[in-house]
Write a structure and sequence with these properties.
The chain is an alpha/beta fold and 407 residues long. Among the domains are: 73 residues, no CATH class; 199 residues. It contains 18 helices and seven strands. The chain has a five-stranded mixed beta sheet, with helices on both faces. The protein has a two-stranded antiparallel sheet with strand order 1-2. A hairpin with a 6-residue loop joins strand 3 and strand 4.
Length: 407
């Protein structure tokens, strides 16, 4: 008895007879398109039979009040290019095909391909050229915009979704994008909030667009997070924007603010000549690399003794922000390594900037949100593992924050 697998192989061999190149299989008039056309038309014919209740030429169709009425040509866009098909019609015009519905011009999968290209930072024109080059598909910029606009409602739902009550750690940062929103091209600040939940997973909480980065707008971001359910955060990590720590503490008064050490070091080195940079960086590392807060204080004093004569503003700046720079010394190593810098959110923003670097100015804020949101969905797929040593950090949070630690 011939097995099913052998029968299938024999059928494939028969289909592939005469195919001598990839073009014969995948080309404009290749086997794959011919099979797709036959399969779709066969399925549509089956739908018509189910709609009428009788097979073609069957006697029971006589006097039924409705019958087949020829076919109508139609072009649909597929992942492998345009496909010409014939859709059956009935005399009363009641037939509503489900596989390819009336006025549907794209098969399932085509929109996903457009969105995938858009999520990688390709412009509408780039996508149009890409589809034309690879698939011979002439797609208008308007159609591509309509496809990408379909995610806007999803963006709005995502942006207003309820959030967890407690995030042990929150990171805040902003990136800048050129936009024509409201007139001439100018920079728009995209505010980004990244949380670490109780499972140690990174979660992007939202994207907000403003004219420029400022503490006043950040206050509205924190208020939005609170309105969406965030009740508490143990530690908020951020750069040293004036007024930003005060804005966080106004909305979440129990939250400790840890200023990013890496940002602080970068800013300090702006004042240093090239020949001194290595030595200054080493001495600053002795400050934030100390095992305890008293050791860090002593290292900063030694830094001042060595460098105050040349770069007095560095130690003054660190002294001014000392309380918020040294929060991480209150915690064990498992927590220190994830709060002393905003690298977690900067790495995320770097991935977003890669999407934007080849793009010109965006026409409006909605276009910015579409690209960043779609890019986020692709980037977040890599966030599968919790933060390293998170179990130990979680136990420490439980001991340190007691009743604020809600499991």
């Amino acid at each position: 008895m011939i097995s099913e697998a052998v029968k299938q192989d024999a059928l494939l061999d028969e289909l592939l007879k005469g195919c001598t190149s990839s073009k014969d299989i995948l080309g404009e008039h290749g086997l794959l398109k011919q099979l797709s056309k036959r399969l779709i038309e066969r399925a549509l014919a089956g739908e018509m039979t189910a709609h009428l209740g009788y097979a073609p030429h069957a006697a029971e169709g006589r006097g039924s009040g409705n019958s087949r009425n020829g076919k109508q040509g139609k072009t649909v866009q597929t992942e492998s290019g345009p496909l010409e098909i014939e859709v059956p019609r009935d005399r009363t015009g009641d037939f509503e095909p489900q596989l390819i519905q009336k006025r549907q011009r794209r098969l399932v999968g085509f929109d996903e391909k457009v969105l995938a290209l858009y999520s990688r930072g390709l412009s509408t024109r780039d996508i149009q050229d890409h589809l034309e080059e690879l698939y011979g598909t002439d797609v208008s910029p308007t159609l591509i915009s309509n496809v990408t606009d379909s995610v806007l409602e999803e963006v709005r739902e995502w942006q207003s979704r309820p959030l967890d009550a407690v995030y042990p750690i929150l990171y805040f940062d902003a990136l800048f994008v050129k936009s024509r929103e409201g007139g001439p091209v100018r920079n728009r600040a995209v505010y980004v909030a990244l949380g670490v939940n109780l499972e140690g997973q990174k979660v992007l909480l939202g994207l907000w667009i403003g004219v420029s980065e400022g503490a006043k707008f950040w206050m509205s971001v924190f208020t939005d997070l609170k309105n969406r359910g965030v009740q508490d955060c143990f530690i908020a990590c951020m750069d040293g924007l004036t007024g930003l720590p005060d804005a966080v503490e106004a909305v979440f008064p129990q939250t400790q603010v840890q200023l990013c050490i890496v940002h602080k070091v970068r800013n300090a080195l702006k004042y240093v000549t090239w020949k001194d940079r290595r030595a200054v960086a080493k001495d600053l590392r002795a400050v934030y690399g100390s095992a305890t807060l008293p050791e860090a204080r002593k290292a900063l004093e030694e830094f001042g003794e060595r460098w105050d004569s040349k770069y007095p503003s560095i130690r003054q700046s660190w002294e001014q922000d000392w309380t918020r720079l040294t929060v991480f010394f209150e915690y064990p190593p498992e927590i220190r390594r994830v709060i002393y810098t905003t690298n977690a959110i900067e790495s995320f923003n770097y991935s977003l900037r890669k999407l934007l670097k080849t793009r010109g100015p965006f026409p409006n804020d909605e276009a910015i949100l579409k690209v960043l949101y779609l890019g986020l969905q692709r980037i977040a797929k890599k966030w599968t593992m919790p933060i390293h040593d998170w179990k130990q950090a979680l136990n420490q949070f439980g001991i340190l924050f007691g009743d604020r630690f809600k499991l």
